[in-house]
Amino acid sequence: MLDFNASMLCLVDEIVRVVPEFHMIRTDRLRVSATFNQSSSRSGLVAYLLPLKYKDGRPFEHKIRGQRIYHYGMVPVYHNGTELLYIIYFMLPRFLNLSLREKLETVIHELYHVSPHYNGDVRRLKGRSYLHGNSLKAYDRTIAVITDRFLSASHDPETYAFLKGNHSVIRRRFGKIEAMHMVEPKPTLLKVARLRQSTETQMTLFE
After folding, report:
1. Distance separating alpha carbons of residues 111 and 105, to the nearest angstrom
2. Which of 9, 23, 47, 202 is the 20 to 30 A CA-CA neighbour of 38?
3. Do residues 206 and 197 make contact, with C-beta atoms less than 8 angstroms apart?
4. Interhelix angle 4-18/100-112, nearest 10 degrees
């Protein structure tokens, strides 16, 4: 039987150990989750990183809509008494139907989204998209370079041996794939306030 979550976390541990860009990551504050789709197609979303804090690691944020300001907060998520900062979701079986190289690049792609400050926020890049910068192709080239460095460095290939083959091959090899889904934490609406335009054209709050 393959424990997908535990095996993926071991792989993340190995990548974090080997790749300097990820040395700030503490895997006791990161979890791996499966999420399921009916299609076995290789195309479409295969993984995503869920940060559990807002910009700069803040636990709260506000959004202005019309004449109201909405205050949101993330409910802390704990594992074994430690507050989590990130969850990485992998779409199954789609993720398992990628090539081995694509699987490794997918894991590294999501880890690269983690803030260098490891504060629950994402890595914010300059450019059109704070997630991928000016060019997704350039972002992907960065991921390819990091993947090459990981594979050429001294590392334990057994940490990703379980990913060899597609979903059907892996299931036959292990007999069963056990994959746990963590319910995705959602922001909580804490307060709604009204906005008033002051005479100095500054926005002021009042209950």
Report:
1. 10
2. 9
3. no
4. 70
C-beta of residue 38 within 8 angstroms of C-beta of residue 79: no
- Mean pLDDT of the 194-204 span: 49
DSSP string, 20-79: GGGTT--GGGEEEEEEE-S---SSS--EEEEESS-GGG-SEEEEEETTEEEEEEEPP-EE
**Contact indicator for 107, 4 with CB cutoff of 8 Å:** no
Tracing tokens 């199954």 back to the chain, one arrives at 92
d(CA 57, CA 195) in angstroms, rounded, equals 26
Q: Is 29 exposed, middle or buried (0-12, 13-18, 19+ CB in 10 A)?
A: middle
Higher-scoring residue by pLDDT: 30, 74: 30
Q: Please tell me whether the overall predicted TM-score, pTM, comes out greater than 0.70 for this model.
A: yes
Strand duo 60-65 + 68-74: pairing: antiparallel
